[in-house]
Amino acid sequence: MTMSEDLPLQMRSWLFAPGDSEKKMQKAAASAADIAIFDLEDAVATEEKPKARVMVREFLESQPADALHRLWVRVNPLDGPHTLADLAAVMSARPGGIMLPKVYGRPDVERLDHYLSALEAAHGIDQGATRVIVLVTETAAAMFTTGDYAGAPRVVALTWGAEDLADSIGASSNRNADGSYSFTYELARSLCLLGAATAGVAAVETIQGDFRDLEGLKARAEKVRRDGYRGMLAIHPAQVDVINAAFSPNEQEIAEAQEIVDIFAANPGVGAIGYKGGMLDRPYLARAEALLRLAGR
């Protein structure tokens, strides 16, 4: 069983809050987000990082123990000077997980695992209890390693980013004239999805920057869920309910999936079976079973 299959919480919505704002961390923690991520990276200026580390640790320490599993921290990338200081500051407060940005490949995850293992031992935390989500497309090099995370320690989800990738390759824009992502960034989305499927972990869609466009968010979230994504990053509490709804199967979907499962159960050993004027084969059954698992059925 992978860690993602054993995960005791949903991973539909991942809401960022800057680690230097107690008010915003409180809003994120109190929201309906499945996971709140307190950000020590892009949301915090370099000179404010020492203060933010203390604020995140103190905020985590103030929370009930049974809430910590959904309170995560985004640390700074391993190719900079801040990661160890971030981890040393927050791990005593037992965050539920760590988001690792700007990876170059699996060795970064393995290095993080070593750091976390030492800090868990130092603070009396069960080994391996701190889970990890990895941002796998923020550097050009990482695009070539998205399929390398099968069995990677602690990893329960992969997500992707378009803005840092554009910086990494020297692009002036990551959008087409109509506002859609251009080819390289759609490729990043696909590679993240394929990498997550290979690793047996959740694929998590990147942010939508315009938090006021909830209709656009709904359409995009529903589209990527059909593609195989299981959650989405959020930058504003207003986005959370839309994301949660988009990544939760509705009653019609559940009923149809159950009907497909029941048809195959009533006809054991059959490879293909008639259904509503068409034919269903075993991949349809697998998708129906996966949807029912997603719905908690």
Question: In words, what does this structure look like?
Answer:
It is a single chain. The chain has 297 residues and is of the alpha/beta class. The protein is 41% helix and 15% strand. The chain folds into two domains: 13-248, TIM Barrel (Alpha-Beta Barrel); 252-295, no CATH class. It has ten helices and ten strands. The chain has an eight-stranded parallel β-barrel, surrounded by five helices. It has a two-stranded antiparallel ribbon with strand order 9-10. β7, α7 and β8 (231-234) form a beta-alpha-beta unit. The longest helix is centred in the middle third of the chain and has 17 residues, at 106-122. It starts with 12 loop residues before the first strand and ends with a helix. One of its GO terms (biological process) is oxaloacetate metabolic process. Belongs to the HpcH/HpaI aldolase family.
Summarize this entry quickly.
Mg(2+) binds at residues 138, 164. The chain is α/β, with parallel strands linked by helices and 297 residues long.
